Amino acid sequence: MHIPTHFKQQDWHQVSTLVSEYPLACISTVSEAGLVADHVPLLLAKNADDNWCLQGHIARIHPLAKRLLKPLAALVVFQGEDAYVSPNYYPSKQSNPKVVPTWNYQAVHINGTMTTQDDLAWKLSLLQRLTEQNERAQSQPWQVSDAPDKFIEQLNKAIIGFEISIDSWQAQFKQSQNHSVENQLGVAKGLANTNPLMAKQIECFAQNLASKG
Description:
By secondary structure, the chain is an alpha+beta fold. The protein folds into 2 domains: 5-174, Pnp Oxidase, Chain A; 180-213. It has 6 helices and 8 strands, in the order αββββαββααββαα. The chain has helices at 12-21, 63-67, 120-135, 149-157, 181-191, 196-212, and strands at residues 24-31, 34-41, 43-46, 52-59, 72-85, 102-117, 159-165, 168-174. Strands 1, 2, 3, 4, 5, 6, 7 and 8 form an 8-stranded antiparallel beta sheet that branches. A hairpin with a 2-residue loop joins strand 1 and strand 2 (34-41). The protein is elongated, with a radius of gyration of 21 Å. It comes from Agarivorans albus MKT 106. Pfam families: FMN_bind_2.
């Protein structure tokens, strides 16, 4: 991934937060037919060696499961907030029309090795932790234990778990950092209705930059 200096994100805390808040990942691997991409919700966790890794599961009948009989190299992509940025958002356009549209976005790429985890207890623990993560916003979070034990046992046997080591990572948080504070605040105002979360992020960044200037 090409990352201009302005947009390079090197803070692991910020990256891990994005991975946890936007867990649906695109996993790219190489098969005999060529590149394959699969979309799977993942959990950022510590493995048995206390190293960060990604954990997930797929149906046993999934084509990827057959290829997981041996370790696979994988590129995992997570994407956070994104938004189209109109030149009309820039106050500087009034005096200098040399501006063009762009797209703001947050992306994380993780390279690692994908291996199978098919122990029933391991998979049950994963299901519980994934559920806890993704149900946390619910007023009455659903739990795996809410479903009948035999039903969960059947589903557990029908899936395989996997773990992806985090061998390297890179992240790009493109949020108008290459513009003046005035333009950043203009973008935040322009996105306030369509993407309030990114608008707030850009506004906070601009305010912090202004306070240092």
